Fold:
Amino acid sequence: MIIVIILMILLSGFFSATETAFTGANYIRLKSMSQDGNKRAAKVLDLLEQYDRLISTLLIGNNVVNIIASTLATVLFTRWFLHNGPVWSTICITLLVLFFGEITPKTIAKQIPEKFACAVVRLVRPMVICLTPVNFLISHWQKILAKAFGNEEEQAVTEDELMTMIDEVEEDGILDEQESDLIRSAIEFHDVTAEEILTHRVNVIGVEKNMTMEEVGQVFSEHSFSRLPVYEETIDEIIGILHERDYMHCLLHQETNWTDKIQPAAYFPENIKIQNLLEELRQKQSHMAVIVDEYGGTQGIVTMEDILEELVGEIWDEHDKVVVDHRQVDDKTFVISGAMDLDEFFELLDEEVDEDEYESTTVSGWVSEMLEKMPVAGDTFEFRNLTLLVQVVADRKVERLLVVRKEAAEEKEDA
Structure:
């Protein structure tokens, strides 16, 4: 009888460990193992597709062996201790099941869930098949309970849940940081509007229609752009796009009327999603979009490169001047460019801010919003645990900002 009790305790541990292994197994990792030719991983995936039947089988098995062990122990201890037998039986079986039937096996299975599930899958499959009639009754009982207590339809995976899944996969080592960042960018891609990534009109480099060949050539030479917007009188009146290749064609053939080479501009509203904008630019075979505001004026421009950078990050070619939007002086001090994206600024400083709380999209605009005036060098203000000092202002914009965490502000006062 003692041998049977020990066997029941071991079986209790087996069912507990198996339940933990199948529940905690990483589906993506099992899928990868199955695609690599692991037949046991494929069988585990097949059982996970019948998750309710699997769990019912394991719970039935666990309860049956625990009841048998408890019953036999009661009989055995009653023989030994007469009236005190049930008490001693309860104490001993509880401790044995707790340590050897629950805690120990579940701890082991939690450490190697996929490996354990693959090891026991050949034993579990026949049990699931044998208990099919019982599982059939249990599934119907579950449906009755679901109807009685209101069974809401299962919702699709939300974007936040998907981001959490990516974080978990990255922590498991299946994806590296670069791969997971690319997937996150692809998921968020459809939410980004042109207004969020455009080059604002005040920063747009263009050529005026009445410029001479020499003046246009000087603009191309100074800024190394392959395309330039062409405007009449002001940048609000962009009439087309001039490609450097077409300008060079005019120069080589000694033509003076470069305006014949102006290509039509593609105009889009500021709230267009960049996913749709990318498709529109592809259809129009254009690499530059002019973004207009609600009044028809130029809000800015968006290039094909700007859109792709939302997926893969900054793209620098051999002619680009690398722009550093922040520099960390020490653990508490940062030098910030006014052109830095506001969301990236808050992320850098670990500040959680509602994306709709501020109208500005750059640090420069946010500083003006916080000061409620045009900033000048020397302006200072506090935001949460940060002390901010405007260092450089040019063309009515903040060029450089010093940020110091409050706990280190006293140390920086003299500086």
Q: What stands out?
A: The longest helix spans residues 51-81. The chain is about 55% helix and 15% strand. Residues 2-148 form one domain. The longest strand covers residues 386-394.
